[in-house]
Amino acid sequence: MTKNYTGWRKSSHSDPDGNCVQAGRAMDGTVGVRDTKAPLTAPLLEFTPSDWRAVLTELRAH
Questions:
Q1: For position 3, what pLDDT does the model report?
Q2: Which of 34, 35, 39, 45 lies 20 to 30 Å from 17 when distance is taken between CA atoms?
Q3: Residue 1 maps to a domain
Q4: Which residues pair with 47 in a beta bridge?
């Protein structure tokens, strides 16, 4: 079953030329990440809430 993600937000570190990612949240707290160039056809990465926190912590450290 495909989850319904809402509240898509564009990364604040996105390139001005449109190369960017968006993150949205499902009702169970899962975070989906997608490429904005092809939001309906590009693969969707899914993270548990704790995995998403770990990803953000690692990204912010660099």
A1: 86
A2: 45
A3: no
A4: 31
Question: Is residue 23 one of the residues assigned to a domain?
Answer: yes
- Reported in sequence order, the residue ranges of the chain that DSSP labels E, i.e. its strands, are 6-10, 21-25, 31-35, 45-47
- Which position has the token pair 């548990």? 48
**Confidence tier at 54 by pLDDT (50, 70, 90):** very high
Q: Percent helix, strand and coil across the chain, each rounded to 5?
A: 20, 30, 50
Query: Does position 56 have pLDDT exceeding 60, yes or no?
Result: yes
Cα–Cα distance measured from residue 40 to residue 50, given in angstroms and rounded to the nearest whole number: 25
Instruction: Look at the chain and report how many structural domains it folds into.
Output: 1
pLDDT at residue 1 above 60?
no
Domain assignment of residue 53, given as a range: 6-60
